[in-house]
Amino acid sequence: MSSAVELAQVWRGEVLESVHHGHAVICDSSGGIVEAWGDPDLVMLPRSSCKMIQALPLVESGAGLTDSQLALACASHSGASLHTGMAGAWLEEIGLGEPDLRCGSHMPKDEEAHHRLIRAGAEPCQLHNNCSGKHVGFLMLNQRLKGDADYVEPDHPVQLAVRAAFEEVTGAESPGYGIDGCSAPNFATTLAGLGRAMAFFANAHRASGARAGAAARLVAAMARHPVLVAGEGRACTDLMRAMEGRVAIKTGAEAVYVAILPEAGLGVALKVMDGATRAAECAIAAILIRLGVLSAEHPAVEKYWNAPLVNCRGRRAAWIRPGTGLA
Amino acid sequence: MSSAVELAQVWRGEVLESVHHGHAVICDSSGGIVEAWGDPDLVMLPRSSCKMIQALPLVESGAGLTDSQLALACASHSGASLHTGMAGAWLEEIGLGEPDLRCGSHMPKDEEAHHRLIRAGAEPCQLHNNCSGKHVGFLMLNQRLKGDADYVEPDHPVQLAVRAAFEEVTGAESPGYGIDGCSAPNFATTLAGLGRAMAFFANAHRASGARAGAAARLVAAMARHPVLVAGEGRACTDLMRAMEGRVAIKTGAEAVYVAILPEAGLGVALKVMDGATRAAECAIAAILIRLGVLSAEHPAVEKYWNAPLVNCRGRRAAWIRPGTGLA
User: Fold this and answer.
1) Which CATH number covers residue A14?
2) Would you give the DSSP letter of residue A10?
3) Do the Cβ atoms of A183 and B315 come within 8 Å?
4) Cβ–Cβ < 8 Å for B106, A317
5) Contact yes or no for B17 and A45 at CB 8 A
6) Is B215 exposed, middle or buried (0-12, 13-18, 19+ CB in 10 A)?
7) Do residue B311 and residue A118 have CB atoms under 8 angstroms apart?
8) Are B293 and B223 in contact (CB under 8 A)?
9) Which residues in chain A are closer than 8 Å to B178, comparing Cβ atoms?
10) Residue of A nearest to B279 (CA)
């Protein structure tokens, strides 16, 4: 087992104020490791970075889905009206409503939606949950599997189907699970397993079979709809736009990031051990630049890679930079 | 130089999801190290954890100040009406106004104040800045030092006085500085230097001299007014209340925490290297429990030490616990 390597640094003036350590892996079409930083055998929870895996059984079920719905199923969205409106319409389309969701609610990240709720003195509903698209997808799959209403239970047919797909694309039995923020089980894997799964998605457009077909559709939907996968001003959206549809990327809570590179046939997975999103964003940007799919000069990149941290008077007081472990 | 030790762990189900490493030190009345975890020689920025040091020149200047004003000068407050009202009244008392501040503004942490601004379609003012009490103190000191208006410049008489006090209580020349979120310079020291300074504050009530007298007043003011130092629901406030005025504690950005224990004459300083506040709160609680000044059974403690992370449906899905390095 290798130690975590330094993935990001925070400098304030002349002082190295904070550092972030973690692990990263790049896998190719064979599922083998092309490059690794730290420990590829780290057992970890992918959290929301594996939503495209969780959507596989739904797409394979043959349900009629638009690209926008597929992107929303893979999203950790900001809860902007665009997202909640689309999730609500999709629910209605399948004859269900907000109370059928089991994701719970939280205040949306989208500032306009957040302020609107506060001004109205209203509470957020389950459509605002960043995972609501994934959950509408679970409900739609459940209509085909005819399971009971509690589709987030780990032994429910929906979650058994997700687990089977997860274990197939990661290439190993899951050693356990945690309950996610949205109450769905989140299956554990190794970092190499998650990288292998992303390489499967990256090579799906060249492969045959129902699973590969579903995977290729999901990658294309994510890459075509960056704003549905996250939201305005968010790293997934900004960086996917900067890569102009050539790469799909996805963040997960506690500083997980994955990237799917269909042209190169590569999958990337990384985990910052302390759970800091700022470091995961910086590290994935650095790796995408290194892989030649993201331009360091693109104006969107500066927010994440060598990003200034601006203080209360607009002064650039600190910087977050890739760590020595990525050099 | 010793490596950082594990100060906190985050568990989700059966998986160790995230870990936080850092350094901690306990110093006694001699300024010597009683106990250390990791590297006491780490060069670091104390950020807001050193506000009681930054207030020393003001108190020593003989300015007439209430205990509440002293507590507010040491605060990273939530911007509740209690805090902004008191900072505004203090400014008026010295014949100045909000535009004289140089801290800039940010949305208050206090939910009621935050929602009130949004409902009014209003922007926060500089009084909402968590550092506004410190800045009113700087302005008051500046009236005595007759410096120009830009009291946050590193070579301004106010900041030179702060630097001299900082170097005396930490026991060493500062090797540099960073610009803080509030635009004031934040002087660097070693972790042992910060611990030594906290031990100076802890023993000030038994010492003689103007500086010791000022330090003892500041410690007493912080311990007597926990809600002014932070705000409802915040760790500094909750834990100081739980210790019933026997200990003063203070957080700083990027996961710094200090504690001042006047009865034992001990000073504590810690830094979590990744800057995660959740880990700094967990680690300081663990150290205070170990030192016998905080009861592990106190209801306020569970929020920080072995704290459950509750998901969107109220389920305890994860836990943050002290790391193996603190065992």
Assistant:
1) 3.40.710
2) E
3) yes
4) no
5) yes
6) buried
7) no
8) no
9) 12-15, 17, 317-318
10) A274
What is the dihedral angle through the alpha carbons of B179, B184, B185, B191, rounded to the nearest 10 degrees?
Answer: -90
Task: With respect to residue A86, please indicate whether it lies within any of the assigned structural domains.
Answer: yes
Contacts B102 to A, Cβ<8 Å: 313
Nearest CA-CA partner of B294 in B309, B278, B280, B283: B283
Q: Looking at the domain assignment, is residue B262 inside a domain?
A: yes
Question: With a cut of 0.95, is the ipTM above it?
Answer: yes
In a mutational test of the B interface, the residue from A1, A9, A18 whose CB has the highest number of chain B CBs within 10 Å is: A18
CB contact under 8 A, B317 and A178: yes
Q: Which domain holds residue B18?
A: 5-322
CB B118 within 8 A of CB A115: yes
User: pLDDT tens string for chain A (327 positions)?
Assistant: 579 999 999 999 999 999 999 999 999 999 999 999 999 999 999 999 999 999 999 999 988 899 999 999 999 999 999 999 999 999 999 999 999 999 999 999 999 999 999 999 999 999 999 999 999 999 999 999 999 999 999 999 999 999 999 999 999 999 999 999 999 999 999 999 999 999 999 999 999 999 999 999 999 999 999 999 999 999 999 999 999 999 999 999 999 999 999 999 999 999 999 999 999 999 999 999 999 999 999 999 999 999 999 999 999 999 999 999 997
Measured in angstroms, the CA of B286 and the nearest CA of chain A are apart by: 19
Nearest-CB residue to B311 (from A43, A115, A179)? A179
Q: Quick check: is A220 in a domain?
A: yes
Tokens 């836990």 correspond to what residue? B319
Beta-carbon separation of B14 and A188 below 8 A:
yes
Task: Indicate yes or no: CB of B276 within 8 angstroms of CB of A279.
Answer: no
Phi, psi of B196 (to 5 degrees): -60, -45
B152 in helix, strand or coil?
coil
The tokens describing A139, both together, are: 């409900």
DSSP string, B49-83: GGHHHHTHHHHHTT----HHHHHHHT------HHH
Q: What is the pTM of this model?
A: 0.97
How far away is chain B from the Cα of A102, in angstroms, using its nearest Cα? Answer: 8
Q: Do A180 and B276 touch (CB under 8 A)?
A: no
* Total of domains in chain A: 1
Q: What is the Cα–Cα distance from B309 to A150, expressed in whole angstroms?
A: 22
Q: Which residues of chain A neighbour B320 with C-beta distances below 8 Å?
A: none
Of B18, B188, B22, the closest CA to residue A18 belongs to: B22
Q: Which chain A residues have a beta carbon less than 8 Å from that of B119?
A: 118-119
Contact B13 A255 (CB under 8 A): no
Mark residue A143 as left, alpha or beta (left: phi above 0; alpha: psi -120 to 50; beta: remaining): alpha
Asked, for residue B280, whether it belongs to a domain, the answer is: yes
Number of residue pairs across A and B with CB atoms under 8 Å? 141
Helix/strand/coil (H/E/C) assignment for every residue in A90-128: HHHHCCCCHHHCCCCCCCCCCHHHHHHHHHCCCCCCHHH
Chain A residues lying within 8 Å of B15, measured CB to CB: 43-45, 176-178, 188
